[in-house]
Structures are given as C-alpha cells and as structure tokens.
Fold this sequence. Notes:
Elements lengths: L8 E3 L4 H10 L4 E4 L5 H6 L7 E4 L9 E3 L3 E5 L4 H5 L2 H6 L1 H9 L3 H6 L2 H7 L7 H6 L3 E6 L2 E6 L4 E3 L2 E2 L6 E8 L6 E7 L10 E10 L2 E10 L6 E2 L1 H7 L6 H14 L10 H26 L1
Parallel strand pairs: 1-3, 2-3
Antiparallel strand pairs: 4-5, 5-10, 6-7, 6-10, 8-9, 11-12, 12-13, 13-14
Helix pairs in contact: 9-10, 10-11
Amino acid sequence: MRSDPGNYELVAPASLQAAVALMAKTPGLWLPIAGGTDVMVQYAAGKLPARKLVSIWNLPELRRIEISADEIRIGAACTYTDLREHSVVCGEFPLLASAARWTGGVANQNRGTLGGNIVNASPAADSLPALLVYEAELILVSVRGERRLPYVGFHTGYKETKLAPDELIQDICLSRRFSEYFSHARKVGARNAQAISKVCIAALGRVAGGAAEDVRIALGSVAPVPVRLVETERAAKGNPISSSLLLEARKTAAAEIQPIDDIRSTARYRTAVAANLVAEFFERMRSNAEAKS
C-alpha cells in the first residue's frame, strides 16, 4: 500500500529559529525531515504515521562542521559524505569515518545525516557506537534555548530518546583528545555496506607497558540501544593484555549485552560474534603496541 501525497503537508522554514518556533506551537505534531533516508522508506510503504513534515535539510546552522582547539562540532544535518570527506573527521575520528563509509551506498551517504541516525534510534545504526566511545555530547535546541547533554544515556529504550517533542539536535560535539588512541571498528553483516549490522563494534585503546591503560568499547545490534561495555572496560584497565584478559573480556562482554533473535541473526550468534570482536580488539591493540615498541 503506497502513501497518498495529498495526505501530507511539507513546509521548509528559512531558518532554524523558524523551524523550532513551528514545532513549539504544536509539540509532537511536526516531524523533522533532513535527508529522509528512513522517513521515505516508511512513506513508500504507506507506514509513515506523521502527516506534517518540516524540512531542516537546507538550514545552514545544521550543515556546518566547526573546528576549535578542543573540539569539533558537527551539524546534525551533515551527511555521511560530509563526514567521510572531512580531513579532521578522518584523521582524528576514524571510527566515525568508517561508520560513514559503511552506511548504505553512495546515494544514501549523500542524503543520510548524522543527526537523523541518532534520532532514528536504531540499535543497529553504524555511527552510534563510535559516538559512544568518543564520548560525544549533543546540543539540543528549541524556543527555550539550547541544552547540552552527554550522548551516553540519550537513548532511553528501543526507538526512545531524551529529545523533547519541540526539540532538534543542532550539533554533535566531539572532544579532540583521542588522536593518539588505537582505534578498531568492525561491522558483521551480510555485506560490509548496504546491509544492516548483525553486530558492530567501535573501540579505542591505549597501551602502556604492555597493559591496557585505557579502553573504550561500544557495540551495536546487541541490545535495545547501542551499548558501552563499561564492565568489560573496567575489568581490562590496568591489566596486561594476556590470554587470561582476553578470556575475561569475552565473558564480561557476553554478560553485558542483550541480543535477540530476529530476521537477520540469532541471539546466540550475536553473543559469540560480540565476544570475538572484543577479543580481536584487544589482540590488535596489543600487536599495534608491540610493533611500535
């Protein structure tokens, strides 16, 4: 069943202020749309419940990437192409650049946005584990002003977030302090691109004296929301990267996730793969440190 265009209204405010003012008049009535890669799938299938759409695609306030000495601010309507072609993103945040290359094909990368990926709130989204390990912060905007909050905890449940009905994500902020970390990203799916992840990992680490001085690990497609493996990180920090650590990391990681059976995979498979990906991260981080010593 296809949607009837006559049943929908689309407006395109000329400024961010006009967009949030419109949303404030009737909170929850207007659905923001930027690249539309998820919204148009629902529309084409006749399953888009929202009837009033507000385009934020061409708002300049949401399409910029700003660099300062301490952080990078990525506008919510920046596309995956913007990310994978940006020198600072590729050089200092390779996990995010990798996720941008994995997300759909070139057409989707030219339209899909980072803010849309966050708000769509799919636990299988490729970019979200990277944002967790980089400890991103979000700037949310409404007629009440701006508020800044950590990305961790933004997803409160499956397809649920802390975004108020009259708010938009304006910027995604990343601290420029991870350039010296070893980074590791893997996506397990039917294909490396243009496929939804069965499991994906984004991880950062730093080794000192053969021990895991600092580690940050996040997984997608293994719980109702993307998850940071806090207990696995805690168990590893300060310990030599040995076979016993790898075994402990496997066990701890498996205990921290809540995979399900669905059309793409099984909970048992996801648990096994997640444990393997975590162990692979530690092994590669150790090899990288040994090669540098």
